[in-house]
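Honest question from a wet-lab person: if I give you the sequences of every part of a complex, can you actually get the arrangement of the whole thing, not just the pieces? Trying it with mine:
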Amino acid sequence: MIRLINFDVGGNMNIELQELLFSSPTRKQLLDYTPTLPKKYTVQVFRNHSFEFVEHTIYAYLEYGQLGVNFEYSGYDDTLSFIELNTVADALILWLDVSRYHSESQFRDLLISRIKYLRSIYTKPVLLVPFGAEVCINMPSLLVFNLQEIQAAMGSAFLDERASAITGTSLSRKAMLVIAKELGLRYIPALLRPALKAVVVDFDNTLYSGVLGEDGICGIQLTDGHIRLQKQLKKLAESGIMLCAASKNEPQDIVELLEKNSDFVLRQSDFTKLCISWQPKTQSIQEIAQYLNIGVDSMVFVDDNIGELKAVTMAFPQIKAIHAEEDANKTADVLSNFPGLTFFATEGQMLSRKDDIISNEERKKIMAKADNKTDYLKSLGISLEFQKNNINSAKRISELANKTNQFIFNYKRYSEAELYRSIEREDMVVISVSLSDILSDSGLIAACVGRKENDVVILEECFMSCRAMGRGIEDAVILGAIQYAAETLACKMLHVCFQDGPRNAPAKLFVETYLRKYLTADGYFSYQIPTELMNVKYD
Amino acid sequence: MKEQIIEIIANGIKVPAEELMEKGNIPESWDSLIRVEILFEIEDSFDICFDSEELISINTPVKLLNATLEKLEA
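Yes, you can. This is the full assembly:
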């Protein structure tokens, strides 16, 4: 039995929901589920066949991902007029039956032209779900959920023409149940929320059966389920999720297990951070969060011990937690469907994240040896590359804007499409900054968006990855980007927009201690990057 | 059996069972979406399958009860 533990301080647990969702729930069970979360998000459904019978069974899945969603509907519209578009909806689903068009090619032509139009009036994420044809479209902030795989797995049970006259769709109710699960656990969370960044796993009775300290390397049991779970974790690590461990064991025993047990799928190199000690797991989680420089709300903790889970979730109510029992196959099922752990495209530069964090330890050693900051920066061989209005970076900039919580001025969660529009405007500029040094290539780590108004640059947004923080180069990265934005827009005056948020104190401190040094009382801004300390390149 | 069918329909449209079967009574909560969900539940619960013409013609709670009983007795 696998449980999503959603303890809050009041002891509210979501055990029943987890059990329900991962034990092939019936339609009636899903219909009977009453969601409790406020409907914070609005998703508009544009359709030419019925979506309602999917919606009826989706709420339990959405609640599992902590999402309260209100669905709004267009009228049936084969022409995709978007007359009824709600431009403030958080996301849009295009739910289209291709068989209603004369031909697939007619549908494709119409679709491409109408999506281009949609993109000019709506910049939030869009999910296309074509029924009856496989569609591949590469457009900003557009995700496609093709149903072919589900159809192939279900065979004739995928369709129900018999009931189509009363349901308004040729999809069978069994197919709609599968689609509701996919949409509720994977697609809609991906539209509305940033992805998770780290998985923290326990070892004993989670990655194998047994207690390493008592049973020894040869005494622990690896079932097929454990192998599958480890493969799933390895896959997540390879996709850019930072895999970490919080285990109460002797560190040398774990290292020996990872290197010497040939049946083990996971190796030490798969982990970004191993926190193996006898300290409370709350302390390990805190250490891991600090090491990764991320919030606990971006982490999911997997442990077999209810007590440990309870202690961690009580200490960090924002952390996600999965309880793994004996059958590790179920843990693997939960992980493969866990909201926020599904990636639908190669996410910009996630793969370099792990190397970057490990290199940070090396940087700390170099800093400790250096006599002063100047020597330290010179010894790192830092290179900064500033790019303006680079349309090819829009996806990565959007990812960064949606993931950054600490170093961000205004929490503007730009979609890719919004960035495209800013890049195209003559009175706006989008500056991105890429960073590398002798230890790692961090890729694109910061961006700022400026708008010209009466010869003043309005700094709409400025954000930097937590991976680049603490290296002593924040001033060069951020102030250099702002200076480049001002030069691009031919302005000498700057107006900085800043909004206090729950976690952007580092950005506020930066504004007060660094930015203000270069900004006069009447708004003039001027900054020069110390090029004697680093290589600087402009596009 | 009849009571079980009535219970499913009554629960689906959230009205007392006794009101449900009054002649000519179509509760306000009986709409096209609820009707389909109740039909699905009846089919799943009793492992029966209405054909497309039957599905279209079952447009009141009483018709659904009678059509289900007919299927089960056939």
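Two things worth pointing out. The first helix of chain A runs from residue 15 to 21. The radius of gyration of chain A is 25 Å.
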